[in-house]
Amino acid sequence: MMDFRRILKILGPGLLFASMSIGTSHLVLSTKAGAQYGWLMVIPILLANVLKYPFFEFGVRYTAVTQNTLIQGYKFLGKKYLWLYAFITLISTFTILAALYTVTAGLLINLFDFQDISINFVALLLFGFISAILIIGRYKFLEISLKFIVSILFVALLITTVVVFVKGQVTPVEGFVSPEFFDEVGILFIIGLIGWMPTAVEASGWVSVWTVEKSKSMKDGPSYKEAKQEFDLGYVITALLAVFFLIIGVMTLYGTGRELSSSSVQFADQIVSLFTEHIGNWGYTIIAIAAFSTMFSTCMTAHDAVSRVSLDILDKLKESDSNQFKSKRAYGLTIVVMTLVNWLVIVAFGGHMGNLVALATFVSFVFAPILGWMNLKTVNSQRFPIENRPNKAIKLLTYLGIVFLSVFALYYLFLVVIA
């Protein structure tokens, strides 16, 4: 067992993963799952977290053992795998950040009553502020700040969860009938929940690049065992927070018959308002801090991750050994480019952002089982040390996860393309 000081020292990639994962998948989907379907939704939430675990852990495993990113592992498998990951990342580049910043800007406007300021301008301010933090502070400051933010978030949500339990579940309206769990609407909701819980599978590459940065920031970088323990801690926090949001949804909304908005921004505002109705106005600050911290930290981590992964892909696609994509200048320039591109996407497609997010969702869902298989293939390749390859239990869990995701991906493909 590691001592507490060593644990604090190596905290990083797992914490960033938790911070990145608890965006709309937790704040919106987990809460909505509890609000609409009740306690039964804890099953798909926990199932998704368990069955998708190996895909993300392989990113940490590969990097901690080889000191190379998972993206380098894709290149070793063959350029076609690298190009596939590059395609998925490209779709994410023009959709995920724009969507996250739009939701966060809208949430900020609603929570602090900035109704006279346009959402585009607030999003630009957020882009500028977060970009400055990332360019000036880079990985080390990101890690330190998120230790603080995630701690506040975890405490705020823990307090919120305990309070709603003490207060008791809201009284159902007379004649309330729970929605069907296995009709088309229910299955589509479950697919969305599982697809983004705890996050999309391509984020395994994000964890990998953070693991590399963590090793660079330490003289005595974490061993594979330590890196795995640190990631496991972050993963458990991620799963716990999903359950916390589910509990909040069940205790404050399930059975009320309230119509919940399909807009992430309006939904987040509804959650804050309905929660304060349930326990009193004094709870507004707690849930507002939790909601905003959730989205702000997700914007920071996603912005950093997409930038780093994009640079790493470009580096692996080139044939020369130059370090042009590994410099501080390249990182800062990429952060700025991501800001400008995604803000322009918000301005140009703000009213149709749902269509862009739907495209990213479609790509993520369809390619998730393929990426899961690629990750397993990478840590089972001849280049990877035999003693560090996954054991039979992890392999079995991985195959179950691939089958699990494949079934949902095929059904989703059928509904979207054929039906």
Automatic annotation (TrEMBL):
<feature type="transmembrane region" description="Helical">
    <location>
        <begin position="117"/>
        <end position="136"/>
    </location>
</feature>
<dbReference type="Pfam" id="PF01566">
    <property type="entry name" value="Nramp"/>
</dbReference>
<keyword id="KW-1133">Transmembrane helix</keyword>
<feature type="transmembrane region" description="Helical">
    <location>
        <begin position="81"/>
        <end position="111"/>
    </location>
</feature>
<feature type="transmembrane region" description="Helical">
    <location>
        <begin position="356"/>
        <end position="376"/>
    </location>
</feature>
<feature type="transmembrane region" description="Helical">
    <location>
        <begin position="186"/>
        <end position="212"/>
    </location>
</feature>
<keyword id="KW-0812">Transmembrane</keyword>
<feature type="transmembrane region" description="Helical">
    <location>
        <begin position="40"/>
        <end position="60"/>
    </location>
</feature>
<feature type="transmembrane region" description="Helical">
    <location>
        <begin position="330"/>
        <end position="350"/>
    </location>
</feature>
<protein>
    <submittedName>
        <fullName>Divalent metal cation transporter</fullName>
    </submittedName>
</protein>
<feature type="transmembrane region" description="Helical">
    <location>
        <begin position="148"/>
        <end position="166"/>
    </location>
</feature>
<feature type="transmembrane region" description="Helical">
    <location>
        <begin position="233"/>
        <end position="254"/>
    </location>
</feature>
<dbReference type="InterPro" id="IPR001046">
    <property type="entry name" value="NRAMP_fam"/>
</dbReference>
<feature type="transmembrane region" description="Helical">
    <location>
        <begin position="396"/>
        <end position="418"/>
    </location>
</feature>
<keyword id="KW-0472">Membrane</keyword>
